[in-house]
Structure formats: structure tokens, C-alpha cells
Specification:
By secondary structure, this protein is an alpha/beta fold. It has one domain: Cytosolic phospholipase A2 catalytic domain (3-Layer(aba) Sandwich), CATH 3.40.1090. Helix content is 34%, strand content 16%. The strands form two sheets. Strands 1, 2, 4, 5, 7, 8, 9 and 10 form an eight-stranded mixed beta sheet that branches. Helix 2 packs antiparallel against helix 6 and helix 5 crosses helix 6. This is NTE family protein. InterPro entries: Acyl_Trfase/lysoPLipase (IPR016035), Lipid_Hydrolase (IPR052580), PNPLA_dom (IPR002641). One of its GO terms (molecular function) is hydrolase activity.
Length: 334
């Protein structure tokens, strides 16, 4: 199938730390049939969403994500290997600064001709008329503003901080969405009008799987589907953890770790259980891989990619656009 023959669709990718490796296999399989007009994501899903919005094809997605050196993602605040993470956690609210992955994303996107959200502008007269000019982009990244207590959809919400959405670096938004609480240090967004600073962390804290991001708000039927791809939906008796080292500690630290991991990994489960959400979304079983196990080897990464590919094939085999419109939108495809 040539690129011109592929069908339009929007795509939303769940966050999940290292589990997000599986998203690449699923996205590559979907790209065999669809082209993505808009892509949204949280955390690891935001990273892949940025590459997809930049126009990578199936081969490019697999090749580009395979180049990420996962063992370098948990970087250090200082060259002292034992003390640096603890000092970072106490003084910077994160075990790791996240500088390495930020610069890696910046370089890779620049190689694709994408630096700021202005490079991802999208103007389509057939879009929902309620979309404002600052909402017309190929990419949406979620983050959580814990200072103001709200979910952010970037670049849509930059204006509320006195910032020009077109001028904001895509890599900085992705890094904010990657800020798993206490694992990576938060990002700070400063309003130049007032000087007020907001602390941003992982978008998954409030919405890890925002499948509704591109849904129309007018009465018109959607022109194409929005697909959602998640990770780790299967029931498991594994202990959830962001900071595995804390599993060995009793008391409040271990409880805090479990609370953060549960918030990031399970926030949207009730929503995703709704029948019409499940019709357009699927999850890849990533049982056995931890959220922050960045020492994952090549064999395990290959297994996750293969699991994503297999899950997407099963989903596509049962997907029926006409049936979805009739059952969930009260309409038929035009």
C-alpha cells in the first residue's frame, strides 16, 4: 500500500515508561494501513507521538526508536554514582535530571525538520470549527501542572502561560510529559507576564491515556477514526513501582512509590472500560517489564515490539469503522 492509499486516522498513545517500547511495534503495524493526521501522547507515548507527528513511516519508527540507548536515560546529577541520585531526589525532586533524553529527542526531531510546535502546524478547513488557531497542530503532549493542579495539553495551553505555542520547543514539552514523579526532576514553566512558575510532571498523573483528545465537539460525525494504543492493560499480580529500590524499604517511602506508580499506570482504567472506548482502543500486554527498568536488554525490547505488532494485528482484524459509527456515533460513514 502506497502512502497515498493509506486511510486517515488520529492516534493517541498511553504512557508507560519502558513499557512504551511496545508502542513502536503497534504504531508501525497501524501505519501499514493508516496515515496519522494528528497524534497525542503522555510520557513514553508523547515521545513516540512526536516522531509520528514529524512524519516517520513504519520503518522509520522502528529504526528511530531502536536508536534510543535506554541505559543512558536515567542520567546523573553529578559524577558520584552513589550519592548523586539521593541528592537529586532531595534537592531537585528527582533521582535523575533527564538531560540526556531531552537532548536526544531534540537532536532526533531536528534531523526530521522539527524544532518547535510551529513546525507541526496543521490547517484543515474540515476540522471541528470549535478548534481555536492555537489548537491546530499535528501533535498534542499531555503534562500535569502540580502548581495549579491541572492537566495541560501542549501546545494548546501555552497561551495561558503567556507563551507563543508556535515558538515552544517540542523536545521540552516531551520532557515535561516524561517527568515520572520522583524518578525524573520536574520541569518548570514560567509565565513571562507575571514571573509565576509552574512545576510540570508526567501527564499520566491526571490522564495517562487521553483517547478523547481529538473528538469533535460539534454535531458532525468524525471524518476518520481515533485509535488508542495502551500498554500493560492485562491484569497482573506484579507489584507496581516507579522506584524499584524502594520496594525493599518499609513504611511511607514504599507506600509513596506504590501510590505514584498506581496513579501513573492505572488512572484511566475505568474510562477505558467503556464499550465505545474499547472499540477504538487496544492495549499491549507488557507484563514482566517494569515502568522504570531502563536496563532492559535487546531481547526484551524485541519482545515488547513484537507484542505491540501482534496486538495491533488482532485489533485491525476486528476493526469495523462503519460499525463503530453506527454503535457509538449514531451515524454511518459518508
Amino acid at each position: 500500500m502506497t502512502p497515498a492509499d493509506r486511510l486517515p486516522a488520529d492516534l493517541v498513545l498511553e504512557g508507560g515508561g519502558v513499557k512504551g517500547v511496545a508502542l513502536a511495534g503497534a504504531a508501525a503495524e497501524l501505519l501499514g494501513r493508516y496515515r496519522f493526521e494528528r497524534v497525542a501522547g503522555s510520557s513514553a507515548g508523547a515521545l513516540l507521538a512526536a516522531f509520528l507527528a514529524a512524519g516517520l513511516d513504519a520503518g522509520g519508527v522502528l529504526e528511530r526508536t531502536a536508536r534510543l540507548e535506554y541505559d543512558r536515560v536515567p542520567d546523573r546529577w553529578a559524577p558520584v554514582p552513589v550519592l548523586a541520585p539521593a541528592v537529586g531526589l532531595l534537592t531537585r525532586s528527582g533521582l535523575h535530571p533527564g538531560r540526556w533524553v531531552t537532548e536526544w529527542v531534540r537532536r532526533e526531531l531536528a534531523d526530521l525538520g522539527v524544532r518547535t510546535f510551529g513546525d507541526l502546524r496543521r490547517d484543515d478547513p474540515g476540522d471541528d470549527p470549535a478548534l481555536a488557531p492555537w489548537q491546530r497542530y499535528r501533535l498534542v503532549v499531555t503534562a500535569t501542572d502540580v502548581t495549579r493542579g491541572r492537566l495541560l495539553r501542549l501546545p494548546w495551553d501555552y497561551r495561558e502561560y503567556g507563551l507563543d505555542p508556535d515558538a515552544q520547543p517540542v523536545a521540552d514539552a516531551v520532557r515535561a510529559s516524561l517527568a515520572i514523579p520522583y524518578f525524573f526532576s520536574p520541569r518548570v514553566l514560567r509565565d513571562p507576564r507575571t514571573g509565576r512558575r509552574s512545576t510540570l510532571v508526567d501527564g499520566g498523573v491526571l490522564s495517562n491515556f487521553p483517547v478523547e483528545t481529538f473528538d469533535r465537539t460539534d454535531a458532525a460525525a468524525p471524518r476518520w477514526p481515533t485509535f488508542g494504543v495502551g500498554v500493560g492493560d492485562a491484569l497482573s499480580d506484579e507489584d507496581v513501582s516507579v522506584l524499584p529500590a524502594l520496594r525493599r524499604l518499609p513504611g511511607p517511602l514504599r507506600l509513596l512509590d506504590s501510590l505514584v506508580a498506581t496513579t501513573v499506570s492505572a488512572r484511566d482504567r475505568d474510562y477505558l472500560a467503556r464499550p465505545c472506548v474499547r472499540r477504538r482502543a487496544f492495549s499491549v500486554d507488557t507484563t514482566g517489564t517494569g515502568l522504570t527498568e531502563f536496563d532492559v536488554g535487546e531481547a526484551e525490547r524485541a519482545r515488547l515490539v513484537a507484542a505491540g505488532t501482534a496486538a495491533a494485528r488482532v485489533f485491525l482484524a476486528g476493526w469495523d469503522w462503519e460499525e463503530y459509527l453506527r454503535a457509538c456515533r449514531g451515524a454511518a460513514a459518508g
